[in-house]
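In response to the reviewer comment on reproducibility (Comment 2.3), we provide here a single inverse folding case reported in full, input and output, so that an independent group could reproduce the run without further information from us. The structure tokens appear first.
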């Protein structure tokens, strides 16, 4: 218990603390470290002590503390083995932290997506939706689960799925270029027209190959219908 308590931390202003920060292993006697870090004699009769920094990409993550009740010296081969273990531990800790950061980032992105009233989506390179926030239900009537797996053209009106428009869609996806405020006509799950304004960017993998798109669609149906009514009224006034 005494060793565990003493090995939990080393003051940074000590010689040993500075060595650990520099990534240098310490091989010494336990009593020397304890006498330099606390008053009184150590309760445990420990002898050889190893303090090996746990590093990743030359950054100290922590340290591995090993002490012996029977050995006064840690041999060269034993030191090599301990340093390998510490190195592997550093890689494992870095990997775990990366995974934790990824989970946090994914959760943050998901919460951010769900806070938006606009439809946020992702699709693969063939135009099939792979991800969606729940706003799609308010805009198009489909749940996020329903829209995933549907192709972009599946939410078009049947008469809009003609060869000209389908060829245009295929061409847009092959080019791998972004689009901004593209206005399109969609079919609501209940059958009525929904006009959206879409902005999207292409997604590329590490080999610079197009793997899909990420975009945001805004419902502008009411605005467009209002504009159409204003144009009609303006034309009617001109005829008077």
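Designed residues, in position order:
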């Amino acid at each position: 218990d005494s060793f565990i308590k003493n090995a939990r931390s080393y003051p940074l202003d000590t010689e040993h603390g500075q060595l650990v920060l520099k990534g240098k292993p310490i091989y010494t006697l336990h009593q020397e470290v304890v006498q330099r870090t606390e008053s009184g004699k150590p309760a445990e009769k420990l002898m050889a002590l190893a303090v090996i920094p746990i590093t990743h990409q030359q950054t100290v993550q922590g340290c591995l503390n090993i002490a012996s009740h029977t050995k006064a010296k840690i041999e060269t081969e034993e030191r090599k083995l301990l340093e390998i273990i510490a190195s592997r531990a550093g890689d494992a800790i870095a990997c775990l932290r990366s995974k934790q950061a990824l989970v946090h980032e994914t959760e943050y992105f998901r919460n951010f997506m769900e806070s938006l009233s606009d439809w946020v989506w992702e699709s693969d390179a063939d135009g099939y939706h792979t991800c969606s926030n729940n706003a799609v239900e308010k805009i198009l009537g489909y749940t996020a689960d329903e829209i995933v797996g549907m192709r972009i053209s599946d939410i078009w009106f049947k008469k809009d799925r003609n060869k000209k428009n389908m060829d245009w869609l295929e061409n847009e996806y092959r080019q791998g270029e972004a689009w901004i405020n593209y206005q399109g006509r969609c079919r609501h799950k209940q059958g009525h027209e929904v006009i959206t304004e879409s902005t999207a960017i292409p997604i590329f993998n590490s080999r610079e190959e197009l793997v899909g798109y990420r975009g945001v669609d805004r419902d502008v149906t009411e605005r467009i219908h209002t504009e159409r009514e204003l144009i009609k009224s303006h034309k009617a006034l001109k005829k008077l």
